[in-house]
Amino acid sequence: MYPLRNARDDLGALVSLEMGKIRTEGVGEVQEFVDICDYAVGLSRMMNGRVVASERPGHSILEVPNPLGVVAVLSAFNFPVAVYGWNLALSLAAGNATIWKPSPTTPLCSIAVTRIISRVFEENGISGAVASLVTGGKEAGEALVESPSVELVSFTGSERVGRIVGQAVASRFGKVILELGGNNASIIMPDADLSLAVPAVFFGAVGTAGQRCTSTRRLYLHREVADEFLTQLKTLYSSVVAGDPLSKDTLLGPLHTGSACDVYGQAIEKLRSLGADIITGGECYQREELRSGNFVKPTISLPKSVNPKDDIWSTEIFAPILNVAIFDELEQAIEWNNAVPQGLSSSLWTRDVRNVGRWIGPSGSDAGIVNVNVGTSGAEIGAAFGGNKSTGWGRESGGDAWKQYVRWSACTINYSNAAPLAQGVSFAS
Ligand code: NAD
Fold first, then answer.
1. Which of 115, 190, 226, 286 stands the most exposed, by the fewest C-beta atoms within 10 Å?
2. Does the Cβ of 218 fall within 6 Å of ligand 1?
3. What is the mean pLDDT of residues 353-357?
4. What total of structural domains would you count in the chain?
5. Predicted ipTM?
6. How many CB atoms lie within 10 A of CB 9?
């Protein structure tokens, strides 16, 4: 009756096995897919166009949404189920067919999901091909990106590949949604409730081994609370149990690939060479049973430079490394928050409503996700999800995101016996 919902735990375990995130996060990802399906069912009755007043007597103007046709979904390894779910549910509700090209390193999740979805279609008299799957790497992605039969390319991945995809789709005047890298900051004010803020930063920085687009990578601490915050955060870091992501006690699974470990190692080396204080972590696990996996220690570093334009601050390192800087005024922290190329998620911890007003207003955070007393990661499906600047300006999931999956027509209808031109233009000899 509910094939996806019923498969939640098994599929969640498969996500955990193939991607490496811990089981509860794998299951949570499938739950997100279930949630967006429920959401899209309701939304399908509310995908309204509108009637616009006309300046001409006896005329009506309608704005009408129609399906686009074929939507290609190109997705990243770190959310091998949920990101497809966001796109599939909205795209289907809008009347489109989809072709999914998942990450080449998570084919099992995509095959399992596609089998579930196609069974639902076929039981309802619809061809399973309406939600097709193409596995493969770069070449398969390129074929979809370049195909004039694909009206919309929804791409989730790195800034590097997103730039290539964005340019390729634009060069054939196609439509594109880009959901790219994040470099997300949390700001802790002196009046923050540390009993909430410390665990939230811990989850944001260490959860999914730092492999979420919304992972907390930068932490700006007000001088008055910096020592206390770091002491409490270090205590949580020391409690991390690394190991088999399917095991109930594990908090930290491996990085997804060996090359991600190299990226982690190079970033630590760079931080050390620039004189950063590595407060905790900074190496791979040495325990025998972890040495053969890609297990790296979650790291907190205090770089010497607080210039956010420096590489160590301005690039997304897809690993559990948290860089910390200390500030005296909120304006300074907001400036640092905004000074990086990416603009996905951000989080301010305060009880002072004046700080909240500044943070969410025109001189506040320039990210797509601007949280207050909520960490940078772990979004719900109800609000549109996405980021600004080099994160790509795309929006998926809730809010008005569905409006990107349709083609809009402005239809002016004349039901009078005259044919006046707009703006009073006269064209008679
Ligand atoms: P990636 O850019 O390496 O790959 C993403 C997808 O693009 C894969 O399916 C890949 O096969 C395909 N691809 C690679 N080259 C291509 C090309 N030339 N043309 C077409 N397709 C091509 O990303 P990744 O390493 O799998 O994922 C991690 C990245 O994804 C991180 O930067 C992360 O922040 C980002 N991400 C962003 C969001 C978001 O919503 N903003 C969500 C999840 C992940």
1. 286
2. no
3. 98
4. 2
5. 0.99
6. 12
